[in-house]
């Protein structure tokens, strides 16, 4: 008898509910190996027996040919004594034990399912809920563990005989695909009026007709309801804006395929990969001149957020409409996305003319993810559907399980254990009861789903954040407060697999400082365990406090007062536009009454935007800075210079940039040129600050984080300048640079402190 070996194999990661066992079964059968494969609390276990060369080939193919939705973290092997077995079987799942297996993210419809969808002879032809082990809903339908059909929102749909046969056949693509269904047994599509009454006729054809007529349609997706209109219709897009109370913020657009997306935007190779990935995020792309998209879709914006269909329903709807559609969150501005049917009907009835819905419940709301391409890499701006709940692997491991509660805006939370940090879906701004409920319910859901009972809880230092108040009310855990900007830099370090120390540049809107003041233009010397504030923008007053965020002209007044202490120049348009309140605001700033000092880089951008007439008041967070970036002349290269007072910590004079911009404006320089010079001036300020700290401390790596670095013009210029100076530059990729990444930073800081305690 020829030589035989038997090997025990353990596969950890996202390997359940993704077709991993039938893949192993087919692979072993192909290679003539005996043994078994099964699921347990840790992931997948297997034993294979046969000739050494075949076992070696099996182990190589195990990772190289893994199913599309699998994410393998670790494969371990151990030698066993051969028993001569030649058959290969799928063993029964092993119950119990501490759960470490991971849940897959929702995934776009695969090519095989699309082929069946389009095949008139297939029993699932035209069926809007077609899926298999390689695609379809996962995270949004899971109610509990283990990931079996009774613990998903498919529990109410008893499989018909053909579906059950596929489900139990190891050689079938739908073996143990928990959402398996068909027209005979699965979810059913319906078109209703805004009163909830079902409309006659084919739901899909009726929905497409309404969109072509310029109506607003609510569409139930994977993670919640969207609002849809014809993207080419100015009247429809304007009506949606008015009803949704969303005055200016751009809408996302869904195009039928890559060719259709290229008619709207410039789509290079890396961006095409993002658009067509299984995750199907919204991708921010340069808008083509003359693109067939109404001005009201993304007013005044040189970019469009574009995505491709990711459910069979989307594919069918786009084919029926035969043109791109707006697909934006189903909510009124500042509210969470609606995902429960009754709630959606109540909240969206005044917005939508009709509802294209179905009877498969959504367990957890999940917004679309938003990304852009930066230097060929994916750069996440909102990490949600398609990415969550895949963990971010970190090294070294967490000594104890951690819950990190995140920030107030763009909130996510993070549960971490071993070497896995599970960052939540986008929760939103914790400013109303429904969002807070989504936050607290989400934490409990994740704790059950991943078997993580936190012993350490990390939170932001701001005493008024609802996430902080939640943390401080928890009992039986060790609490650790993490400064906001340290968390930003720590998140960037974890994103890049680094420990530090680094020069951390954390530029954002607002964060609570260790001195009780508002920070936001920070240069830190930072590692995971701690940081030192090594420099920052010179603080200026925020006249009216939060009112200065909503009305950027107030920041222009404060910065002009700082730039021209002897009296600001005459004839500034921003002062004329706001002359009624200008003197009172200057008085607030000079007296320090209702005018907290802030070093915020976001407020510096606001001041420049108001000065240049971009915007005196905003309708959504960061609007003035976003539009200032849009204004900047792309070909302009020169910039302003800001002085740095080299004390320790150093002070960078952002007011110098405002003074230079005001001088150019008075001299008649076009605003697009001034906007570009301002951006380059901020980049030069960052360069000078990093050079000063490198000279003082010998550090050669810079980590860039904070919402200001969503600005692609600034990020590109800063990165280029620093690299030209010999720095290694770390930027975000796996989690957002904005406050959506804060929870990861808090978690790794808490772990570093735990290790050093």
Task: Offer a few descriptive terms.
single chain; 28 strands; DHBP synthase; Alpha-Beta Plaits; alpha/beta; 757 residues; 23 helices; ten-stranded mixed sheet; 22% strand
Describe the fold and architecture:
- The protein has 757 residues and is an alpha/beta fold.
- It has five domains: 5-90, Alpha-Beta Plaits (2-Layer Sandwich), CATH 3.30.70.100; 103-187, DHBP synthase; 189-358, DHBP synthase, CATH 3.90.870; 391-496 and 739-756, Nucleotidyltransferase, domain 5 (2-Layer Sandwich), CATH 3.30.420; 519-525 and 534-730, ATPase, nucleotide binding domain (Nucleotidyltransferase, domain 5, 2-Layer Sandwich), CATH 3.30.420.40.
- Helices cover 33% and strands 22% of the residues.
- The protein is built from 23 helices and 28 strands.
- A ten-stranded mixed beta sheet has the order 6-13-7-8-12-9-11-10-14-15, with helices on both faces. It has a seven-stranded mixed beta sheet with strand order 25-26-22-21-20-27-28, with helices on both faces. A five-stranded mixed beta sheet has the order 4-1-3-2-5.
- α13 crosses α23 (742-756) and α15 (552-563) packs across α17.
- The longest helix has 27 residues, at 671-697.
- It is globular, with a radius of gyration of 27 Å.
- The protein starts with a strand and ends with a helix.
- 55% of the residues are buried.
